[in-house]
Amino acid sequence: MKLRHLDLENYGIHVEQSFAFQPHSLQIVYGRNEAGKSTLLQAVRELLFGFQHAKSNPFAPDSTNKKMKATAQLTMSDGSDLQIVRRQGNKNTLTGNYQDNEIDEDRWKQLISGADQRLYEHVFGFSLKELATGEESLKEANLDEALFGGGLGRLHDYKELLKSIDEETESLFKNRGQKQKINAILADIKALKSELKQSSLRPAEYEEWLTEARLCEEELTRLSTTLDKVYRKQQHLERLRKAHPLWIERQAKRQQLAKLEAPSSFPADALQELSQTRQQSAKLSAEVENLTLDLKQLDQEIAAIQFNTKVIESGEAIQTLLFGIKEVQGYRRDIPLRTQDRQRDIDEAHAILRQIDPKLKLEQIAKFELTLTQRNKIQQLSKTFQKLTTEIESHSPEVERLDREIQEIETTLAEIPQHVAELVERLQSSLDPLRTSLARRSELASHMRKLNADISQRRQSVDAIAGRELDLTNPLPMPMEPTIHRYETELQSLSEQIRAAEASVRETTDELANKNDELRRLEQGARLVSEEELHSARQDRDETWQSLRSQLLGEADATTSKPNPSQAEAFDKQLVHTDQLADERYRHAQMLADQQSMLSTIRSLEERLAAREKHLAQLTATRQETWQAWCAEWKPVELTPKSPQEMLPWRATYLALVETQAEVSQIGQEIAPLDRRIEATTALLREHDLVSSDMAPEEAAVWLESFLKRVQADQQKRDQWEHRRQMNRESRKTAFSQNEKRQQQLAVIQTEASEILSVFETIGDVDLETAADLIQAVEKVQAKLVSAEGLQQRIADMQQGLKQFADQVETVVAATGESLGDMSPENAAQRLGTLLSEAENQRGLRKELEIKRQVRSESLERSQKDLAEVAARLSQWRSQIDAETDEQLEVVSQIVREKQALERDLAELDTQLALVRESEPAQSFQQALKALDVDGLKQELMSATSEHAEAKQLQEQVQRQLGEFDLRLRDVDQTSHSVLALGKIESLQADLSDCLDRLGPLLIAKEMLARAMQAFREENSGQLLTIISQLIEQMTEGRYTKVEHDPDHEGGLILSGPHDLRRTPSQLSTGTREQLYLAIRLAYIRHYCQGAQPLPVLMDDILVNFDDARQIATLKVLMDFDPQIQIIMLTCHQPLVDKVQSLSESIQVTRIDGQPVESPPAKTQPKRKKTPEKSSTPSLF
User: Could you tell me which CATH class the domain 1-115+1131-1159 is placed in?
Assistant: First the structure.
């Protein structure tokens, strides 16, 4: 598919602009900065795949009345043509025609082989930004990533995708990890499962409380349903109450509307429009009258304008004369001046000749002509003669100077001291080892002092815990660091458990004390009859009754068969007492129930307290055993340990001191050989009496270094002076030899000069010294004569120009028919210019008036037409309602307006009724309003409100009971570790399920990417590598010839070239990496287009980082790339355009602003000075 023509409307800077393209493989679109190149690239992208939404599209027009639109003509790969139009909108934005069939979005996707916008942006239409991003990604990419991700144009996105998948996967799970979410959840679940073994039992009332709580929840559900029904009924009645006045008003409005009669087709705003139409008619009548008067006045003004048409016809000739006035004036001013200059040159030539020889004349100058070779030869011989003469004169002083310097050098050499070479050599070889040994010994001694000071400072805390001064040379057999960490963990865990157990015991003790206090307050508040007390009173009553019954029935002994009055009274009292106790217990039944519940709670708390105190005692014993084991670990060290937290840094400090002490011993061993080496060097110096016996080694080293420097300086001076003496001797010998040669050269020069200067025999003897001045004077005379001849020719040319100008003025005056009298040619030309300006002004004024008259005429026609339309409109309205006058129109319009107002009020009432009705069905609500009884509505509303309040109150009561049961259950649950652990495990398992739901797709996505890359490599790797290698070889002009696997790094990418050149992408320059990435992308474009419809390729300034040679090489690659693929390159660089035009004239270059393209300037050949023809007359030139 190739783009042939593109029209853009309201797209960024391209408001209404067209672009024509050729079907060639490569073409250039040139434009300066901000000319719209990047806009054109984005326009092609959105043409193919749809415009972005206007609010987020930076290229959308500011006005909502303007819409983006793009029209394109394309040619398919089979040669058929198609046209598409892309419009701004939400749906059906693409239309077109292909082979006499309409095109929609589905058909368009088929035609472009299913390509999407992201693929096109990264593969076919890209800029320098995408190229730079891909180039940067190549630094760390392997071969598979470069081919798979870079071929798709998204290497950077591909690497970022893999990185984000790995990071998110590792944040969820990692082998042997601890901080990752899944690892942490699994560790927490494992720890909580171990807690289940330490769970405690719930009280016996727990199941009963659960049953009661469940019943409360069921009751709450039933109450909620009832409450919801009552609430809906209440809201329905409330809506009826609000809607009834609106419904009454709506019915009245409908009755009023039914009484109004007016034509249904008559416009509602006819009254206002009628007024406007009358005003428009009056305005148009006034405009017609005014325009008619203006036309008459313009006709008169046009007829009054008169001018000479012949002057305008001769305008071009007059303009030529005006341009020549200044030149003619310059001629008149320059002719006298140039005449004076000519005469001055001739006078100066005579003066120069008189200086040479008063008898000479200008005509004799030709006799003294020398060729250019002879003049140069004379100048060269003169310079050589002067130089040789000067050198011969300076020979004797130079020889004397050299003899004097040789004598001084020998005196200086005798004063320089000499040293024994063997001793100096031994001392020289000993200096560096001595300095190195001293520096090393000083460094080691300083380090040893620091280490000893560090040991003294740090061992105080170590000895304080040990209770004695420890021997740092023999390390103690201390426990290992993991053992200390183990004891630290165990003791810390036991301490935390003991603190938690103590807190639990305190909480239980406090809770038990509070419950006992509540029980005492309850018992003190009223006398509570216990069940035992009531049972005892009833038992006494029953015994007394049995006794009385036995006596009354004769079942007792005869002596006691008669009832005892006191016994009967006691029974009566017991009977009354028992009833009183029962009544009192009944009155305080709730308090008794609370007492029983509190006693049960107290017993439960006492059992819990005993269990927790026992658990605390067990933890304390376990901690004591662990501490004893901890102390046993330190028995071999013979010290009483502190806590593991304190012993761990103590152990580290002790071991560090042991290492430091070992380092001190090692330093002492290194210092001993250094001392021996230093002593050997100082002994050598004392042996030759170079230093005193009491001099320190450091001072001896400084003295030795100074001594060797002096010896070296003396030897350098001796060598320099001996070298200078030898050079002076050789210079003296050479000076005598050169002086003889100069004498011979002078004789040869004199002979050659005499032969050349024989032309000056008429003047006399001319030696070599005066020949140069004579030749220079002759040249000056000749130059003056040439200048005078040129001035004479210039004067003749100016006189000829004056004559031609006068003839032209006479011709123009005759053609115009103007009479200018005796004016000079210049004044006549200026007068003609004035006449031309006046005639053009008159013609322009007449043309302006004619245009103005045409505009007035067109306006008159439009006004007359509009006036006729207004009259026809009024007539049509009157005929529509059978009205004869405009007053009848006004009456009907007023009725229509009132009808429209009522309809608006009805619509507003319907809206208000709909708002009040909310979600109720409209039909049933209307029927309820029709059958509504206002008084009955009030009664029903009051009843529903009361019923809702009662249900609400009962619901709150049940919620309070449920809250009490929940509180009891929560108190029990909080004391049960198993319930808490199970709850946490369930929560963690839910979190684990969520994490696994996230981890699964990530692992699947990573595996799918790996498989896709492997499949792409197996199918296309070889073919793509061959294409990439060919392209990179052409782009780099043969520097790199192949792209292949790196054998040293698995999956690596490497570029190879001649002479064993091998580079990885990270070793390449930025420009070369961009060329490699471009080659990968071009290879993928060719590979993609083999099985799909080719798309136009647009490149925006991608050659910026290429040098000139590789720019040309890349342009050649793009020219010959593929005839089926269209490449459009956008650029703002004129040199790149020049390079393209220099490569081939067939490449189309288009300016984005539509202006013609400037051709590259032709290379100008350097101008060669014309050699003047030789004159037959002899001359010096």
Answer: alpha beta
